[in-house]
Amino acid sequence: MWCSGLRKRYGKRTAVDGVSFSVGRGEVVGLLGPNGAGKTSVIKMLLGLVRPDDGEVLLLGRPGRDPRARERVGYLPELFRYQPWLTAAEVLTLHVRLSGARVPAAEQADVLARVGLAARSGDRVGGFSKGMQQRLGLAVALVARPELVVLDEPTSALDPLGRVDVRDVVLDLRERGVAVLLNSHLIGEVERVCDRVVILDRGRVAASGTLAELLGQRELRLRLDGLTPAAEARMAAVGAVTRTGREVTVALPAGEEDAVVPALVADLVGLGVRVHAVEPVRISLEERLLGILREEHA
Amino acid sequence: MSTALTFAGLTLREAARRKVLRALGLLTLALLGLSAWGFAKLATVDPEFGALTSGEARLFASQLLNLVMFGYSLIAALGTAFLAGPTLSGEVESGQALSILARPVRRATVLAGKWLGLVAFGTGYVFAAGLAQFAVVYWAVGFWPPDPVVGLLLLAAQTTVLMTLALLLATAVSPMASGIVAVGLFGATWVAGVVGSVGELIGNDGVARVGEVSRMLLPTDGLWRGAMHAFQDTTSLAAAGFEGSPFLAIAPLSGGYLVWVAVWLVLIGGLAALSFGRRDV
C-alpha cells in the first residue's frame, strides 16, 4: 500500500494535509496521533470511502480509485456495525461473495473460531455485544484471504483477552506476509506489534520511522563501585560511556541488547567491579509521541 | 450484475427478516376483510332506494375498487419509500456501509441492487394485494377489472417512481428526512392532480395545468390515474357522465407519458448514482 500527498478539507477545516507513507508486504505499520489528527480520514481515503481532494493511492499494485484494488483488502472500521438481521456466518458469506474470493464454508467457520465466535455462528448479529461485534468485524477483515489488512481501533471494545487475541492475529498476518495498517490509541499495543510507526498531527505526518529510529538507541544504566581502567575499557568497547559518580550509562548497540548486557555484567564482576544496579532503559513510544506532539504545538 | 443481484437479494431478505412482510401481510388482510364486508353490503338491496341497477352497481364497484386500490398503492409506495431511506442513508449513518463499500464493488452497482430489490418488493406486494382484492370484489359483486395486469403494472411503476425519488433523497439527507420529503411530495402531487381535475371540470385551463405540470414533475399521480382507468368499468362511467372524481379516470395513459416515466426514472436513478458515488461515508 502506498499513498502520496493525500489532502482532504471538510468546509474550511483541513483534515488531512499532504500525508504520504507506505506499508510493505509482511510489515505492520502503526498509525498514531491525537483525536482529530486525521487518522480515520486517511484510512477512509485509502479504501475509497472518502474522496481525497488531492493525492494518489496504490493498493496491491492498482490505483485506489479502481474498485478491483480492494479485492484482497480486509478492513475493520472504527465504527463496526454489521447487518443485525443476518447471522455471523451469513455476514462472512456476504463479504466473501462481495470480495470475489472463493472461500469454502469450513474455512469461513475457522475464521469465526479464530476470533472466538465459533459457538455463535448461527446467531443473529443484532443480539451480539459490542465486543462480539468487533470480533466479528475482525473475522470480516480476515475472511477473504486478504493481502492488506486495515484495522481501525481494533481493540476499542475488547477485554484484555481479546486484545491479546488481536495482537496474535496481527503477528500471524505478518508471518504470512500480509501488510497490516493498524490505527490504535493503545500505544503499548502499537509498540508491541508494529515494525514502523507514522505519527499524524493536525492532518500532517509529524514523524515516521521504525521504532528504533523513533525511540533512539537503548542504553544501560549501572550503579558501580571499584571501577578499574580495565573495566572502563570493557564498557567503552560496548558503546559510548557517560559517568556521574557511581552512576554510569553505556549506550547499547541496536538489536544486540539481549546478548551484550549479561556478558558485560559478567565481565565487570570478573574484573572486580561491585555491581549494585543494572537497568536497561529506552524512552517509551508514549513519551516519544508526547514529545513530538509538544514540539509540534510549541 | 451478480453483485447487483446480491444486494437485491439482501434487500429482500432484510424486508423479510425485519418483519416488514409480516406487518404488510396483516395490514393487507385487514383491508381485504373490510373491503369484502363493504362490497358485500353494496350488492345487497338498499331498503330506502331499492335495488341498484347492474350499471349503478358496476359504477359504484369501480369507484369503490379504485378507492381501495388507492389504499394499497399508498401502502406500497409509502412503505417502499420508507424502506429506501434506511437501506441507504441509514446504513451510511450507522456505519454498516463502511465494510461493504470497502469491498471491490462500485457504488452505482450497490445502488442498482438495492433499487432492484425494492422494485421486486413493491411490485410483488402490489400484485399480491391487488389480485386478492380483485378476487374479493368478484366474489362480492361479480365485477372483474377490464385490464387488471396493466393496472397493477402501472401501480408498481408508481411505487417504483416514489421509491427512486426516496433513494435519490437518501443519498444526500438522513433516512427520516428522505422518507418525509418523498411522502410529502407524493401527497402534494396527488392533491395537485385533484386540483387539475377540478380545473378540467370547470374549464379553467390555468388550474388544469397545475395537475399536468405536477404529473410531469413527479409521475406518481399520472400513473395512478392510468391504473384507475385500467381498473374501472369504462362503459358505466361514460353512461353516468362522471368527471372530476379523484377516484375515477376518463382517459388511459398515453404512450408518450409512459416514455416520459421511463426517462424520469433513468434521470433520477442516474442522479442518485452520481450523488451516492461522490458521497463520503
Concise description?
With 298 residues, chain A is α/β, with parallel strands linked by helices.
Tell me what you see in this structure.
- The complex is a heterodimer of chains A (298) and B (281).
- Chain A has 298 residues and is α/β, with parallel strands linked by helices.
- Chain A contains 10 helices and 14 strands.
- Helix content of chain A is 37%, strand content 28%.
- In chain B, helix 5 (107-141) runs antiparallel to helix 11 (255-278).
- The longest helix of chain B is centred in the N-terminal third of the chain and has 41 residues, at 54-94.
- Chain B is globular, with a radius of gyration of 20 Å.
- Classes of the chains: A alpha/beta (298), B mainly alpha (281).
- The interface between A and B is medium-sized, with 31 and 22 residues.
- Chain A: InterPro entries: AAA+_ATPase, ABC_transporter-like_ATP-bd, ABC_transporter-like_CS, P-loop_NTPase.
- Chain A: GO terms for molecular function: ATP binding; ATP hydrolysis activity.
- Chain A: Residues 1-227 form the ABC transporter domain.
